[in-house]
Amino acid sequence: MVARVPVVDGNLEEAPLAGLAVDERPVGVADACRSVGLRGILDVGRLGIGLWHVDLVKAADGLLAMEQDAPRLSEDDCVRVQTMFGAEASRSRIRRERLATYVALRLVVEQAHAESDGAPADLCRVPFVRTMEGRPSLPGFRGDFSLSHVAGHALIGVAQEGSIGVDLERPRVLRMEARRRFLIEAAAARMAPQFPLPADGDARFIAAWVRVEAFAKARRISLARLLTDIGALGGGGAMPPAERVVRRSDWPNANHETTVRDLALPDGLVAAVAYVEHPKH
Fold first, then answer.
1. Do 252 and 191 form a contact (C-beta atoms < 8 A)?
2. Which end of the chain is more exposed for a tag (fewer CB within 10 A), N or C?
3. What is the DSSP code string of 218-260?
4. 148 and 205 housed in the same domain
């Protein structure tokens, strides 16, 4: 199922986005959304931001049944899934989960568009447009969205104004050069200094990683570029002193233009959201 958690006072700047209650309001564009438990996990009305956690084990059948009744996916969506995951029977679950994720994404974007413009637009079956880095956009939708997924789960973020990035990972053991690991963790700590990273080694790095990925998506830059900018990709040499690393004037988020927050999700999932509020002209 898909869940949304409301933020206290509707303020992303002040809310920790952790341990908040589930809002039971349905989020879809039709009452049929109730049948798949389409609910939100975050709603910041002032900024037009919404986040959704999709439990694909529970929601996939319902989402795909909705797609059969009222198709929303483009032909490109189906071809993309077939190309990425093949036709082997052993990968049928993965294909179903990915198609269900795309259905959920389109429902969420359709709803956000309706709330923004006051009336639904016909976004059904409109192909996504992707940048060279693979970031999707949907012609006709003036806002921004971000998608991340692991086996059995997906995380969707939508912003009616500004840009948004989300990332989702499962806890796991990672092996990485100490210098690179240090630089990624230092950058992530800088992105949300009021919310310390976990003390444990692997848990600390995964929490840092989702912040960095979400940050790159919200800033609309490639992950490779961000890792290069913070010195974690390319170059080499001795590890810089921690104090000098953190104080670099060009360090990500040094000017606090991007808000980054950790998310509390079930099943031990690790996630983060980043948001850039674009100036109004």
1. yes
2. C
3. HTT--HHHHHHHTTSSS---SPPPHHHHHH-TTSTTTT--EEE
4. no
Can you give the C-alpha Rg of the chain in angstroms? 19
pLDDT in tens, 48-62: 788 988 989 889 999
pTM for this entry:
0.83
Domain that holds residue 244: 178-260
Residue-wise pLDDT for 254-275, tens only, equals 444 789 999 988 889 999 999 9
Q: How far apart are CA 168 and CA 191, in angstroms?
A: 17
CATH number at residue 83: 3.90.470
What's the confidence (pLDDT) of residue 176? 87
Pure H helices in 122-248: 178-191, 201-218, 223-229, 242-247
- Cα distances from 81 to residues 13, 15, 78, 101, 135, in angstroms, run 36, 36, 5, 11, 16
**Do the Cβ atoms of 253 and 191 come closer than 8 Å?**
yes
How far, in Å, are 120, 154, 162, 227 from residue 46 at the CA level?
Answer: 20, 25, 12, 32
In the numeric block, the tokens 């409109």 are attached to: 126
- Kindly list the distances between the CA atom of residue 248 and the CA atoms of 187, 231, 243, 253, in Å, as whole numbers in the listed order: 10, 11, 9, 11
